[in-house]
Design the sequence.
């Protein structure tokens, strides 16, 4: 497999959360993601281009929607006759009966624009059960010091993590560096201020504005390699940090990862998540023209196991289909969200054959070693491929 390496009950879930702080070795593992219709209870403006959306979770589904701070959900709806899916991080610590996400409007983004202008309380959307590994691996938060570096909507999971870390231990500390273009672009401005007021000695919050002058030159301008080094040395103090959380666009996250590696931070202590790779938007899986298999053309056999049932589909070699695209022809319920190698919703274990994975911004090294792939980015390089979504 060729893989590029870019740089129980609701009470049981709550107990697991408490014992593992915000993740840790006892945190629940990934489970099969499923959609359920949830009702919107509130749409709250955050900035001119961002909203917070809260959903009601019925008591019968509370186990399905138990989550750890830092995880995400995928939304599914139909716009102009086309199914669309998008993934968004959960922005609040776990609260029985509800979950909240933040949606920032993307330039030209159909889903985010529709949500910004048309989503109302009382509407119902299909919401996938929570997924993701952007959670802490620390089993004990007493005396722990967590650092977060976020840009734009990347604050969403980081804020949830910070709230949980500070709330679970009286001796934990959090340092946040949050960069935006201007003060009007800062999401959760009041919530972050309230968090600072609640934990004045244990939360260090530094706003960096790239297009607005602040009184401190260090907090003004775009974060480049030199500025990042200075911020780390003067404000964050890497030698005191137990775990790092990076969330934002690819260029910033990669800069932070490379810089932390250069100064000797163990990569196993660094968690990262992307909200964009900077690439052109990929077409929705449903946008692609139907594949017709002719008798005279070479094919790859793709076998998919999902919910205990296996199905086989033929994929023409010259179509260069991803495993996900082929799988959707025989299993329309195959899980996926971003289809860009970022969220990890489509992951499955490769049982037979070999693949080339075009992008991977979601799987951890240990998952790759155990044979997991992102089916949206994996293209067969053998005559037969078998994957299992249930493992």
Sequence:
């Amino acid at each position: 497999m060729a893989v590029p390496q870019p740089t129980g009950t609701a009470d049981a879930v709550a107990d697991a959360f408490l014992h593992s702080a915000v993740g840790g070795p006892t945190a629940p593992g990934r489970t099969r993601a499923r959609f359920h219709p949830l009702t919107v209870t509130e749409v709250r403006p955050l900035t001119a281009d961002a909203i917070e959306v809260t959903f009601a979770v019925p008591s019968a589904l509370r186990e399905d929607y138990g989550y750890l701070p830092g995880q995400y959900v995928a939304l599914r709806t139909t716009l102009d006759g086309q199914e669309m899916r998008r993934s968004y991080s959960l922005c609040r610590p776990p609260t029985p009966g509800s979950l909240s996400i933040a949606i920032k409007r993307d330039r030209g983004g159909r889903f985010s624009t529709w949500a910004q202008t048309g989503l109302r309380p009382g509407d119902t959307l299909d919401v996938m059960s929570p997924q993701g590994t952007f959670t802490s691996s620390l089993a004990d938060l007493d005396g722990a010091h967590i650092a977060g570096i976020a840009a734009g909507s990347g604050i969403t999971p980081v804020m949830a993590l910070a709230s949980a870390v500070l709330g679970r231990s009286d001796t934990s500390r959090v340092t946040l560096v949050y960069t935006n273009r201007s003060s009007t672009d800062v999401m959760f401005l009041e919530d972050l201020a309230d968090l600072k007021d609640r934990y004045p000695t244990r939360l260090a919050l530094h706003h960096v504005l790239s297009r607005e002058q602040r009184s401190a030159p260090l907090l003004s301008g775009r974060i480049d390699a030199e500025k990042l080094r200075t911020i780390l040395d003067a404000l964050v103090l890497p030698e005191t940090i137990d775990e790092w959380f990076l969330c934002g666009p690819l260029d910033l996250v990669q800069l932070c990862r490379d810089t932390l590696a250069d100064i000797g931070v163990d990569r196993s202590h660094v968690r990262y998540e992307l909200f964009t790779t900077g690439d052109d938007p990929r077409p929705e899986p449903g946008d692609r023209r139907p594949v017709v298999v002719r008798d005279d053309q070479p094919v790859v056999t793709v076998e998919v196991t999902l919910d205990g049932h296996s199905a086989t589909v033929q994929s023409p070699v010259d179509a260069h289909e991803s495993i996900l695209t082929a799988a959707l022809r025989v299993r329309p319920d195959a899980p996926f969200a971003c289809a860009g190698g970022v969220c990890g919703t489509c992951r499955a274990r490769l049982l037979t054959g070999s693949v080339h994975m075009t992008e991977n911004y979601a799987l951890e090294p240990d998952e790759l070693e155990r044979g997991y792939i992102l089916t949206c980015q994996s293209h067969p390089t053998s005559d037969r491929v078998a994957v299992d979504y249930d493992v």
Notes: The helical segments are 10-19, 110-118, 155-168, 189-198, 225-236, 250-262, 323-330, 365-369. Residues 1-30 have pLDDT under 50 and may be disordered. Residues 155-168 form the longest helix (14 residues). The CA atoms of residues 142 and 334 lie 41 Å apart.
